[in-house]
Amino acid sequence: MASAKVVHHLVVFIVLFTANYHDFVEGFSSNLSFKSGGGERKGASYAGQWKYLSILVSVAQTVFFGSCVLSDLLEAILGRKPNVLKAIQDYLFGVLLFPMAMMVQCLFWALYAVDRELVYPSALDAVIPKWLNHVWHTAVVPVLLLEMYLVRRNYQARSIALPGTVFFGAAYLIWIRIVAHYGGFWVYPFLEVMGPIETTIFNMAAVGMLCVFYLIGEYVNTKLWGRDTFEVSSTKSRKKSNKSA
Predict the structure, then answer these.
(1) What span, in angstroms and rounded, lies between the C-alpha atoms of 99 and 117?
(2) Which residues pair with 34 in a beta bridge?
(3) Which residues contact 48 (CB under 8 A, 6 or more apart)?
(4) Fewer CB within 10 A of the terminal residue: the chain, N end or C end?
(5) 34 vs 197: which has the higher pLDDT
(6) Is residue 74 one of the residues assigned to a domain?
(7) Is residue 222 included in any domain, yes or no?
(8) pLDDT range class, residue 31, cuts 50, 70, 90
(9) DSSP 8-state symbol, 41
(10) What CA–CA distance (Å, rounded) separates 115 from 96?
(11) Which parts pass through the membrane (predicted)?
């Protein structure tokens, strides 16, 4: 299991790093601003690649798996796991990476199935390699599920974790509104046809979905490793309260 973990971390990091390197050098994701039928939307170069959730998640996963490679290296050298780094990894895995990856995969392929022009116009097939599209939108969840299977991830108590998930989700929704205000366009074309009420409902539903995805990740992790993986923080809190009392 230990060797499988190391290989998994290294392979996923190399693939993600290569994908993001080629994207930022070649500017593949800048083509996501194409309209259906070709042609770039007015002002769509604003904020570059950093306005797309799929790119942000891909970069975040690259950093995460890079830190996992570093952890494996330090563990091999020092003979023990770097606890602080693992605690940070565990928090970000449960609160940010898994819910956001689920959001990217589920929303992208659901919208793609309904009308791909709303999320990934057919004109992009000629400019973005298919393998890169699958790195962004297909592999994001499977690599995390395999990570969850290979490595015990300690989930925080929900009272700590869920507010973090809500914060990250709300931060991105605010970010795309900033892009819409200053860039003069919506990052995702389907938002252009929504009025204020529909947009508000969408925002609330999106944050709610993230919370559901967090709970799904927690459930899967519990099935794999046991319930105590997300009770660690709450147990520590109770011990501190008892001592102070």
Answers:
(1) 25
(2) 40
(3) 30
(4) C
(5) 197
(6) yes
(7) yes
(8) low
(9) P
(10) 28
(11) 52-70, 91-114, 134-151, 160-180, 200-217
Nearest-CA neighbor of 97 among 62, 134, 135?
A: 62
Rounded to 5°, angle at Cα 211 from 141 and 65: 35
Residues in the chain: 245
pLDDT given for residue 47 in this prediction: 85
And the tokens for 93?
């895995």
What sign results for the dihedral spanned by CA atoms 36, 40, 42, 43? positive
Q: Which tokens sit at 229?
A: 């993986």
How far is residue 84 from each of residues 27, 71, 87, 142, measured CA to CA in Å? 35, 10, 5, 26
Q: Determine, yes or no, domain membership for 242.
A: no
Amino acid at 8: H
Task: Name 109's Cβ contacts closer than 8 Å, sequence gap at least 6.
Answer: 137, 138
User: Which pLDDT belongs to residue 127?
Assistant: 83
Q: Is the dihedral of CA 77, 78, 84, 86 positive or negative?
A: positive
What is the SS3 assignment for 153? coil
Whether residue 45 is contained in a domain is answered as yes
Encoded tokens for 43:
């002002």
User: Residue 182 sits in which domain range?
Assistant: 2-237
What kind and span of H or E run contains 67?
Answer: helix 53-78
Which amino acid type is present at position 56? L
> Smallest Cα–Cα separation from 48: which of 38, 59, 37?
59
Least confident of 68-72, 119-123, 225-229: 225-229
Closest CA to 221 of 104, 213, 75, 100: 213
Six token digits for residue 54: 């799929």
